[in-house]
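Re: How this chain folds, sequence and tokenised backbone to follow
How to read it: Take the token row as a discrete description of the fold.
Start of record: The labelled sequence and token lines come straight after this line.
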Amino acid sequence: QVQLVESGGGLVQTGGSLRLSCTASGRGFATYTMAWFRQAPGKEREFVARITWGGSTNYAGSVKGRFTISRDNAKNMVYLQMNTLKPEDTAVYYCAAGLGYPGSNQNQYNYWGQGTQVTVSS
């Protein structure tokens, strides 16, 4: 069992940066693939980025080159550095954990945080 808590969301202007953090508690954090998803108002939740236990990363095309996912297994933390933010990045951002090698499909993830709001003003 893994519990996830996100933090770091807020209001930022277009072109600004934010770093989201996800704190994990429970056993076996280092063995999980960790991911970030987001859900904008009126839209379905979508994949943003993932990082495997070994550090391999994948990104959605819409954030590639602007966002960076990383993890610190010693601290049970995963991060999402978001640069050059755009109004279309406005959403609730969720941290997720999955066993094995889940990809961009949210149904492959076992545990979820409560989400943190990111709002990008134009």
In short: The mean pLDDT is 96. The chain is about 0% helix and 55% strand. The first strand starts at residue 2 and ends at 7.
